[in-house]
Structures are given as structure tokens and as C-alpha cells.
Write a structure and sequence with these properties.
The protein is of the alpha/beta class and about 800 residues long. Strand 8 and strand 9 form a beta hairpin. The protein folds into four domains: about 35-220, no CATH class; about 225-350, no CATH class; about 395-625, no CATH class; about 630-775, no CATH class. Strands 9-8-7-10 form a four-stranded mixed β-sheet. A four-stranded mixed β-sheet has the order 13-12-11-14. The termini are far apart.
Length: about 800
């Protein structure tokens, strides 16, 4: 009987493999072949032999070949392979990024919204590993991941350099098949070339065998090893600080948590640091964390007491979501000096009702404004980076609210550390309400009108306050600008937009930009609570739209702060140039109907280009704290090579707008003993204005497009790879300057690119990621290949 059953099973499997997707296979019942599916216990203790095999052999392959596309919210099919738990969770056909949904979606955040694979099954996730009989046959035939790997081996990538558009779709909004195991045969028949990795070369035979052997054995895995005792002793010290019992300490801890909840905390005295997330728990230090899972960090925890705990990051570090935040004894003492030692009274803790909790100017009014502002300034890059890396992996609607490159400065906290400033912010709290008070389901039009009116009231009150402050003849000068206390490189930042992603760096990178921001306390705080703490990637269309429209106000406020340092007659002209063809509301703003500040500038100008003069003055003023990390002229290359790089950096117009958002260039030095040099070529798109919500194309000024070349890796989503010898740089610069068509660009790629179809693609990828890790071991993360072009 047993032999008869085995023979029947073997025959059925053979038939299904032979027909590969025909009606015969469609009717096949996997339950009859391998039993009913149920989640398996695959996570082993790290010390177990099978776990060690996973950590040393299997996990590196998955990270370097799979995680590079399957890590963020927009990972295809929500399949996040950056952790053992994510692989076991599997996939889901629903898209996180769905810009037209009428109601907020249920959240599916890894390690937050469910804690077990069984719970994820209840939320609609289907397995990519076999959950039936655990035999080698079942594990390789009834598992989606195994079948996808076999499909790729059977149908390697076509040999042409550029894949046919009719057969491949690399757009971010492409239809995703996300087949279950029951649908795999149909998928294999309909899309025989769509094995994994999708649209990239197949992995090596050795790597494939490692994965197939692991899958056949039942996919045993291990979570990340526990931190050392020394690390946990530091965790205990910090958790003791965050969980003090006084009302002052509880309010301070809540404030810090709501600003750091997206960061990766680490102790900077460790060579190979462990990263942690600061989370809310129902349990006190010393007990297992009982996570409080809410959409936003300021949502009602429904707990008598909230404890702030360090939860180890269990996912592979990927660049797109990695925000390292260093902790040490100096930082702890700084927190105490800012928040604990000053004399002030916290009479009661604020509640969590949305109208209060979503407005930090109200919720934290008992904390000194200067303390809050200096806390954010100490790590200003991290603060701004929150809206760049924190809540979204893809956000064209959110990011078309900023220019492609601009500089950021900050108001000196000493200038605003006065009782009158504190009183002004307190008086304006009602005018500084934010869209998150409406939570995740919002009607856009009515709320937009309301917020527009309140912003107008705030700006008029702010201008009256400034006029009163300067009534005795004083005027704004560059003394207004924070100098980083003479040592802090966070005083100068550059923000790059890459269409639907962005990067924020320390330093004033590139030539003088078209626009710049000057941020004060209230503006910096509101940006964080609008785009980080208050933004819900799962929110409905109205929530996302109102958030984006509100950011128009905050951007213009930051720009106006910068323009207030220019001569009064120049401000409107400059603003009008930034907002050519703007709608009526913006036109009113530009004309001064909404934002009228006519106080003369205290800066003395000597040329006909005041904006250029001002930017130069600020460069000089902040030179001692201005980071030069990205200066390509400092690269270890020969003088003629630097000259060629200068030529590449000067590209404008047609060659610039034919480039992808980010091109990573690896240069092999003439000195063969020297390491390869990395550069990033950033494409900057020019616009008439950036006030259009849905038709950005109509505002483009293609002839004004340019590029910024930087040393090192900048950005998370490469669009193209170039691999050149140093001796080729002069010819590359010349050829790039003549690129005037798609065909000319393709010819350049033929000579210098490592396309997604290149046989040596994975070898190049490994070298690229290793160079990044070697240069910046703490901040480096795996790059994401979901934006790689097929050109």
C-alpha cells in the first residue's frame, strides 16, 4: 500500500511538472499530495548547528541576492526577506502604496502588527516556504520560493543587453502577480522568464545549490544573535533614564521617543554595534517587551503606564531605512542638561487625544522651547532625515513638494531663547495644528481650506511679532544663523530629491542652489510631526493629499525665512522666480497678501546678485563646521582625472535630463594597489514651481536640468551603474557632454555601464556594497535595486 501511494504521488508530481501550468495542474490538490498547510517552527536558537548553517551560508546569499529588492514597504508582494521572520511571513497581494484608497488600510508592519507567522496568516499573508509535509520533495515542489528559483534556472535571463519592454515591466506601479503555491503552475506557464531574481541575472550554481539544499531541509533559520552582556548593561542604564517616575521624566521620555522612534540607536564605543529601536511597552525594564502597537507614536497606548524600551533590530540593515543614532555617556549627560537639570514644573502629563497629541506645540508646552530645539539641532541631519527615510520607501506625491537640491540652515537657538519667543509659540499653538489630528481618514478639500486659513493667521502673527522685535532699528543679519556651536556639522545640510525618494546630507553640497531654507524651532518641529510622527503610509488618499498640501506651507515658510535676509525689494522677485505660473493661493503668498514682512535686511550687499552673495556669506560663516565628505575634488585620483570629473559635474540640459536620478560610478585607479573609488552622479530636475500636485511634468524646465557629482555613495536607489578605469574618465566626460538622445545615452552605457543584464552584475554588486561597508561601517546598509533602469 505504501509503495502504491508513493508511486501515485511520484506520477502526479511528474505529470504536473511536465504540463507545468496546464489544466491538469490547476486541478491538483496539494493537500492530497502533501497534507494540509500550517505554519512550521523554523526559527532555531542561534547556537543550533542548523541555525549556524543558515547564518553563515544561507543568510548572506539571501541578503545579497534577495534583500536588495525585498526589504522596504514597497518590496514586491510585501515579501520582506530582510529577516527570518519576514521570510516565514511570506507575501501579500495587497499593495502598501495605493494612492487612491478611500479608507485607511490595515497596517502590516513587520515585528509590530503581528508577532507570529500564524497571526500573519490571519492577516492575509501566504507562505513562500512549504508549510505542508516536511520532506525534500514537498519542500521543493510545494514552496513558492523554491519554485521561483527553479524557474529562473530553467529560464535564464535573455542574452540581450536591454530587455524587451513588451515582456518586462520594471515600473514601481507594475501589476504584481504574487502567486500562491496553488497559482505557481499558471504563473510558470504565463511568465516563464519571471523567476527570481526578477529581471536580474540568475544567481550562481553554488548559491542556488545552497538555497535549494536549505529549502529541501525545511528552511531552518535563526533570528539575530542576542546582544552581549556589556551591551545589555548599557541598555539597562538608558532604560533606567527613560523610565524615571517623575512627571518631568515621563514627559521628557515621551518627547524623545516621539522624535527617535524611526532611528536605529547604537552605542558608539562598540566596533560592531548592535542596533535598537526605541519602543513603547506595557512592561517595565527587566521584563520581556510587551509592544504597544499603534499607527503613530503619539496614539493612545491604552495602558496605565508606558515604558520606553530598547528592542533589538532583527532585520538586515538596508540603506533606505537606516538612520543610525549614536548613544554614549556624553549624550546621556546632554539629555540631562537639556531636560532634567533646568528648573521648570510639569504639573500633569498631556493626554493622547488626537487634537492635542498631534500638535507638539501644545502637547509639550511644559518643556522649555530652547531644550526641545537644541535636542533636535544636536542631530539635525537625523531630524530632517526622518521624513526622508522614516515613514516611506516611495513617495512621489509627498516629495514633489521639495526642490531637487537645496541647502538648509537653522536659526541660532540663542536668538530665540527668550520668554517672549516662548510666549509667542504658546499663543500660536491653535494656529499650528497638523493634519494628523484627523488621524488616517481625511476629506482633503474642507481640511485644506481650514489649514490654509490657520497658516495665514500664523504668518501674519509672526510678522507682527518680528516687526515689534525690530522696532528700535535692529534688522535681521546672518547672526541669525546657527553656527553649530563651533563644532557641530549638523549646522549645514543639503537635501536631494530623487523623484520619489530623497537624501539628506551634512554639508553644503554642490554649487549654489536655486532655493534654501532657514528653519526655526516651530518649523522644524512641525515638519517632523507632519511627515514623520504624524504621517501614515497606510492612510487614505485624503490623509496623504492634505499632508502633502500642508507641506507647501512649511516649505514656503522656510524659504521666506531665508529670503528675509535679502533686500526687501529682492524678496518678491526671487520668490516669483521660484514660483513661475503658481496658482492663486501661492500668488497671494508671493505678493505678500499672506506673508508680508517688509523689514529691511541688516545684511550689506555689494553686488547685483544678493542671493549669491548671501549664500557665499553663509558658506564663509559656517566653513569650520561644513562637512566636505562629498567633495569629489578630494578623491585619490590623478589631476587630469579630477579635471574630467569637473567636466562631468558641469553637465546641463539634454545630457542631464537623460540621466537617471542616481548613477553610481566605480572608478578603478591607475594605481592598481589603490582601492576602487566610488562617485554618485545626481540628476537635478528643474521646475517652474513645485506647487503642482498631480501634473509635475507640466512644470518641468528641461533645459535647466543639471547634475551634482559627489564622492562616495549618496542615495539608496541606484538607477544605473558605471564601471570605468581611471584612464577612461576623460573620454567618458567628453562622450557624456554629447549625449543628446536616448540612442546616444545607450551607446554610452554600451561602453561604460554594468547593466542589470550584465553577466558580472552580481560580482559588481558585491564589490559595491563591500566598498560602502568598508568606508562607512556604521551607516552603510544594503542598497535597493527596485529603481535600476532597463536602458
Amino acid at each position: 500500500m505504501i509503495n502504491l501511494q508513493n508511486s501515485k504521488r511520484t506520477l502526479l508530481v511528474a505529470i504536473t511538472l511536465f504540463f507545468s501550468g496546464c489544466a491538469v495542474y490547476a486541478g491538483l490538490n496539494f493537500d492530497q499530495l502533501y497534507g494540509e498547510a500550517s505554519p512550521k517552527q523554523r526559527i532555531l536558537p542561534p547556537a543550533a548547528p542548523l541555525a549556524n548553517n543558515y547564518l553563515t551560508d544561507v543568510k548572506p546569499v539571501i541578503e545579497n541576492r534577495c534583500v536588495v529588492c525585498h526589504a522596504c514597504y514597497d518590496a514586491p508582494c510585501q515579501l520582506k526577506m530582510s529577516s527570518a521572520e519576514g521570510i516565514d511571513r511570506g507575501s501579500n497581494k495587497e499593495k502598501v502604496y495605493h494612492g487612491t484608497r478611500l479608507l485607511a488600510a490595515n497596517t502590516t508592519r513587520m515585528f509590530i502588527d503581528a508577532q507570529t507567522t500564524a497571526e500573519w496568516r490571519e492577516k492575509g499573508f501566504t507562505p513562500v516556504l512549504n508549510e505542508r509535509e516536511q520532506s525534500a520533495e514537498a519542500n521543493t515542489q510545494a514552496g513558492v520560493m523554491a519554485r521561483m528559483l527553479q524557474l529562473k534556472q530553467a529560464h535564464p535571463l535573455p542574452t540581450q543587453a536591454v530587455l524587451e519592454d513588451s515582456q518586462w515591466d520594471f515600473s514601481l506601479d507594475r501589476d504584481q502577480q504574487c502567486p500562491t503555491i496553488e497559482e505557481m503552475a499558471s504563473y510558470e506557464q504565463s511568465y516563464p522568464q519571471w523567476g527570481m531574481p526578477y529581471g536580474l541575472p540568475q544567481i550562481s550554481d553554488t548559491e542556488n545549490q545552497i538555497l535549494m539544499d536549505w529549502l529541501a531541509a525545511g528552511s531552518p533559520m535563526a533570528s539575530v544573535p542576542a546582544p552581549s552582556e556589556a551591551t545589555m548593561a548599557k541598555v539597562a542604564q538608558w532604560e533606567a533614564f527613560f523610565n524615571g517616575t517623575s512627571l518631568k521624566q515621563q514627559l521628557v521620555s515621551r518627547y524623545i521617543y516621539e522624535h527617535l522612534f524611526v532611528s536605529h540607536l547604537y552605542f558608539d564605543d562598540e566596533a560592531n554595534p548592535t542596533f535598537f529601536k526605541l519602543v513603547r511597552s506595557r512592561t517595565a525594564p527587566g521584563q520581556p517587551i510587551d509592544l504597544i502597537a499603534t499607527r503613530r507614536p503619539f496614539d493612545d497606548p491604552h495602558a496605565d503606564r508606558v515604558y520606553y524600551r530598547f528592542q533589538q533590530v532583527r532585520e538586515t540593515i538596508v540603506d533606505k531605512t537606516h538612520m543610525p543614532y549614536a548613544l554614549n555617556n556624553t549624550k546621556l549627560e546632554r539629555y540631562k542638561a537639556l531636560f532634567i537639570e533646568p528648573t521648570y514644573t510639569v504639573s500633569a502629563l498631556p493626554g493622547y487625544e488626537p487634537k492635542l497629541a498631534a500638535n507638539p506645540l501644545m502637547a509639550f508646552s511644559q518643556l522649555p522651547v530652547n531644550s526641545r530645539y537644541r535636542f533636535m539641532l544636536d542631530n539635525a541631519q537625523n531630524t530632517i532625515m526622518g521624513f526622508i527615510k522614516g515613514p516611506v520607501c516611495r513617495g512621489q506625491l509627498a516629495l514633489n513638494v521639495i526642490n531637487d537640491r537645496f541647502w538648509v540652515f537653522f536659526v541660532d537657538p540663542a536668538m530665540s531663547d527668550t520668554p517672549s519667543v516662548n510666549e509667542f509659540y504658546a499663543s500660536q499653538a491653535h494656529n499650528l495644528r497638523l493634519p494628523a489630528e484627523k488621524e488616517s481618514n481625511t476629506l482633503p478639500i474642507s481640511n485644506w481650506v481650514s489649514y490654509a486659513k490657520q497658516q495665514g493667521r500664523f504668518l501674519r502673527a509672526k510678522n507682527e511679532f518680528l516687526s515689534e522685535a525690530f522696532k528700535n532699528g535692529e534688522h535681521l543679519t546672518t547672526e541669525l544663523i546657527w553656527e553649530g556651536d563651533g563644532h557641530n556639522p549638523n549646522a549645514t545640510l543639503t537635501v536631494f530629491r530623487h523623484f520619489d525618494s530623497a537624501t539628506v546630507t551634512k554639508g553644503l553640497v554642490g554649487d549654489h542652489p536655486k532655493t534654501a531654507w532657514v528653519l526655526d524651532y516651530s518649523l522644524l518641529e512641525r515638519i517632523h510631526y507632519l511627515l514623520v510622527a504624524g504621517f501614515d503610509v497606510y492612510g487614505n488618499f485624503g490623509h496623504q493629499l492634505v499632508t502633502r498640501m500642508y507641506m507647501d506651507f512649511l516649505r514656503m515658510e522656510g524659504e521666506s525665512n531665508f529670503l528675509s535676509l535679502l533686500p526687501a525689494d529682492v524678496r518678491r522677485k526671487e520668490l516669483a522666480d521660484w514660483y513661475q505660473g503658481a496658482n492663486q493661493h501661492l500668488s497671494d503668498f508671493i505678493k505678500g497678501d499672506i506673508n508680508q514682512f517688509d523689514q529691511p535686511s541688516g545684511v550689506e550687499y555689494k553686488t547685483t546678485n544678493p542671493k549669491g552673495e548671501l549664500l557665499f556669506m553663509l558658506e564663509q560663516k559656517l566653513e569650520s563646521v561644513n562637512s566636505t565628505r562629498y567633495a569629489f575634488k578630494d578623491a585619490s585620483l590623478q589631476p587630469q582625472s579630477i579635471k574630467a570629473l569637473e567636466s562631468i559635474d558641469s553637465v546641463t540640459g539634454k545630457p542631464a535630463n537623460l540621466l537617471p536620478e542616481l548613477t553610481f560610478i566605480m572608478v578603478e585607479p591607475t594605481d592598481t594597489k589603490a582601492p576602487a573609488q566610488m562617485f554618485t552622479l545626481i540628476q537635478n530636475s528643474a521646475h517652474k514651481n513645485i506647487s503642482s500636485l498631480f501634473n509635475e511634468e507640466s512644470n518641468r524646465l528641461y533645459e535647466l536640468d543639471d547634475v551634482t557629482l559627489v564622492k562616495g555613495i549618496l542615495g539608496s536607489y541606484p538607477g544605473a551603474f558605471w564601471h570605468v578605469k581611471e584612464s577612461q574618465l576623460p573620454m567618458l566626460a567628453i562622450q557624456l557632454s554629447y549625449v543628446d538622445s536616448e540612442q546616444a545615452y545607450r551607446e554610452l552605457l554600451d561602453k561604460y555601464a554594468v547593466r542589470r543584464t550584465a553577466p558580472d552584475f552580481w560580482a559588481f554588486s558585491d564589490k559595491l556594497n563591500q566598498l560602502y561597508r568598508d568606508a562607512y561601517p556604521v551607516e552603510a546598509g544594503l542598497l535597493d535595486y527596485n529603481r535600476l533602469q532597463n536602458r
